[in-house]
């Protein structure tokens, strides 16, 4: 069983992993396009984005949970943009 990580720490870790992998452009594009359909897309992502989710390692489930909340998606995009600039 995994321990619960605070939301801000989790968003920071995922954003850093995305930037380190040099995937910020594609991830921001994906996050901006899912919009209000986050719950649906998080389920679709389990299937179609599996190769990218592997890069997040133990954070992949947390990433899918973040996709379900538009406010968290916004925070993640902002953090990725901040780290990549």
UniProtKB/TrEMBL annotation:
Query: Which top-level group of life is the source organism from?
Result: Archaea
Q: What is this protein called?
A: Uncharacterized protein
